[in-house]
Design a protein that fits this description.
- The protein is an all-alpha fold.
- The chain contains 4 helices and no strands.
- The chain is elongated.
- The protein starts with a helix and ends in a 55-residue tail after the last helix.
Length: about 140
């Protein structure tokens, strides 16, 4: 398989993310093609059609990356150029020690330090915190 496809598949492992990208990427292509056609026909009055397709496309892909837990590809590129930290592959899909198999929680009797600890999903409900109570009296 081609390296760019392996990289893309590694960054898009969640099924919902793949579905959102399967809809969003063709919308982006359609928006760019429609924009080019309208530009060639000098139809500036219909600017909203390709713009709407491109915005919806990026919204769907952004949602996919929120579900996935990593940064959009364009954001990764910008952060790399600026020397900022970024998340290319979601920590829950990362592999320890660069192994080829995804990290899985240890089973019964397995050593707990052999794999990465599970990472909470951004969409999991928050865990209630205990608050100190004022003593009465």
């Amino acid at each position: 398989m081609k390296p760019w496809l392996n990289n893309w598949l590694e960054r898009h492992q969640h099924p919902a993310s793949r579905v959102l990208h399967a809809v969003g990427i063709p919308l982006l292509a359609a928006g760019l093609i429609l924009g080019l056609v309208q530009l060639c026909q000098w139809r500036w009055d219909l600017w909203w059609r390709p713009t709407g397709l491109i915005i919806v496309s990026y919204l769907l892909q952004w949602l996919g990356h929120r579900v996935e837990g990593n940064d959009l590809g364009e954001v990764v590129l910008l952060k790399k150029l600026l020397g900022r930290p970024y998340v290319a592959v979601s920590p829950r899909f990362s592999t320890p020690n660069n192994q080829t198999e995804p990290a899985t929680p240890p089973g019964p009797g397995a050593e707990s330090d052999t794999v990465c600890p599970p990472v909470a999903n951004r969409f999991d409900p928050p865990v209630p915190r205990e608050t100190p109570r004022d003593s009465e009296g």
